[in-house]
Amino acid sequence: MTGLLQDLINGLLLGSVYAGFALGLSLVFGVLGIINVAHSALLVLAALLYVELVNGVGLDIVLAILPVLALFLLLGMGLQRTLVQRVAREPDSVGLLVFFGVMVVVESVAVLVWTTDTRNLRLGYLDPTLRFLGLNVPVARLVAALMTLALFAVVYLFLTRTLTGAAIRGMASNRDVAEMVGIPVHRIAMLVLGGGVALAAFGGVVLALTVPFSPQEHARWLAWAFLIVIIGGLGNVMNTLLAGLALGVVESFVGSVLASQYTYLVIYLLLAVALLVKREGLRGTAVRSL
User: Fold this and answer.
1) Which residues 6+ apart lie within 8 Å of 273 measured at CB?
2) Which neighbouring-strand residues pair with 135?
3) Residue (of 75, 19, 20, 25) closest to 45 by Cα position
4) Which of 65, 141, 191, 249 could covalently link to 11 via disulfide, CB atoms 3.0 to 4.6 Å apart?
5) Are 107 and 39 in contact (CB under 8 A)?
6) Does residue 228 contact residue 27 with C-beta atoms inside 8 Å?
7) Domain 2-284: CATH architecture, name and number where available
8) Cβ contacts of residue 283 below 8 Å, gap of 6+?
9) For helices 39-51 and 218-232, what crossing angle results, to 10°?
10) Is this prediction's pTM over 0.85?
11) How confident is the model over 101-136, as pLDDT tens digits?
12) How remote is the C-alpha of 90 from its chain's centroid?
């Protein structure tokens, strides 16, 4: 029984991290209809900067999160203003190529500056492990999970309880109609992409808090983020969280009995079955729904 509880705890902690990976991708995809293939490269770049601030500069492990998020918020807004806005009315393939180019540039910069070495964050006061009733809970993973849950709550309340959130939901439903009723769609698009990139940076923070990573591993995290978005549905905040938790629990339980390569195989087989049985994704979310 203790082993099952340990697997469940590990899965929930891991799943919250996966949900943090996917939130920014889900938001941008759901509102702007943009497939941001640079999401994982930006995520890993943020993780590298975060590690540099903590390990190199010596900033507090929690306080260092704020400048990383602020920098990537501005970066995302700049990408919207300089690149994405220019191709907003072009076919989806053009936007896909733009973000593919961004991904290549970001990955190249990361490798040139930090090389391909695996990075580890100095956890400091977050390094201990809590032990009770025979269960082990790493403090760093627990903190990452709690931060992710808090972030999901903030994003959900922002989208459902504020005028700006209502404008974002209106734009997600129909951009042309939103523009006709006076919603500043260009400004909202800049805010959404900026927020999406900042959320990718948050994913990089929780990545650094939980596992060692390399600049060239970002494709793995992109696959996981897309997997969660597909299961959870486009742009649905709470379903993204549930899908991430479900993925983490499945990986934890399967990984306790099978080798890692078979774990990945089982997860993708479950995805294929889920899409065949219920193509709308988790809870029947077939359309963009914030």
Assistant:
1) none
2) 132
3) 75
4) 249
5) no
6) no
7) Orthogonal Bundle (1.10)
8) 233, 236, 239, 242
9) 120
10) yes
11) 999 999 999 999 998 888 899 988 998 988 887 788
12) 26
